[in-house]
Prior knowledge:
The chain is of the alpha/beta class.
Amino acid sequence: MMQFTETPSPPPQPPSFHQSPTPLFSSLSMNKNQVHRTSPWPGFPMPKSLGSFGDANCMEQLLVHCANAIETNDATLAQQILWVLNNIAPADGDSNQRLTCGFLRALISRAAKNGTCKMLAAMANAQNYDNLCNETHKFSIIELANFVDLTPWHRFGFTAANAAIIEAVEGYSVVHIVDLSTTHCMQIPTLIDAIANRLEGPPLVKLTVAGAVEDAPPMLDLSYEELGSKLVNFARYRNIHMEFQVISSSYTDGFSSLIEQLRMQKLMLSGGIGEPEALVINCHMMLHFVPDESVPLISDSEASPNYPFESSSIYSPRWTLLKALRCLDPNVVVLVDEDADFSSNNVASRLRSAFNYLWIPYDTVDTFLPRGSKQRQWYESYIFWKIQNVIAQEGLQRIERLEPKNRWVQRMRNADFRAIPFGEDAVSEVKAMLDEHAAGWGLKKEEDDLVLTWKGHNVAFATAWLPA
């Protein structure tokens, strides 16, 4: 569990889009039994080819047909498919229905943004989908600590990464941690605890973070300066001296200003200024925000001047970031992310990948949070934000560009890193953590990496790397 202690204030009201919504097609209400009759319009896929309208496979295929109709500006077909989906996928239904409802809303938002279907654009404006997505809850520290503790989704990465970090910094009197995380340093208290228990005594800890990601949940209700003050106080309580710094830097250009400052610090240490330190790069579910090759290409003339190298006339910020991290010669890089592929420029392909991955959080929520609870509403709003970003956004606004583990492994090798295995202590700690949660969670070891699973399906991976 997280170690912060403060009296939590009553949480604000959750986002309104989790309440039972006004039907999207209120004038087209229908008896659910009607959907199994003959096709109500020419060209619509027949139930025989789709299976039962109520199962997940059918819902996925309907969503894909709808996405294709929107992309080809077939407003009539899109509206008719959405009519069916609206009646078989209520927002307060089972996990598959709630998942489908999220994609339904995202497709309507996409149609509105594209301006292809006037009726759908008007509908999206009436339902105010963009504002609904922006009403994501802002957490207090206590709320966020409790939120990330609900499932192993983040705790898995925290536990595996901390074990790898402790091993990598053994014997160093100064440890510099660069935390690139979407969870606002929620991993750090448990890492401080582990460092405080070192046999050789606690080191000086320097913690560097990039400025908060303002447009992606989970969001904090306090500044990073305030967060840093609380972390420093907590470290002091554990007899560790901590220095905390925030560097204004953005994932959109591969954290170039952060990299530049770290590079300058490395040059100073190389020149004998300051005490040698262990450099730790901790990447927790944030690197997939950095634009990859699927984003419109950027030329050298537009590239950041903070990077000291470019290998060609065209570069990917994701590739450049990994090469820049390698130039820092870190003691360890820990990369934790979700094991899915949302990188396709084809919206139907992305929809299939996202549908076959994001059923997992909807399925797991039924095991630990009751219907109607505020935490559940916040949890599902977080999933809905992901769906909305994957389906309705494009360009730099689409930041949920997940890649599967094998592709990240290849990227790290191409950047001249070599994988290191997680020790038995790390595996034991992860297994002990999983025992605190529902029986569906599991752990796989794939070569040097650890993989979190739900009912046998990959959820997230943890990898550790050294300069080759």
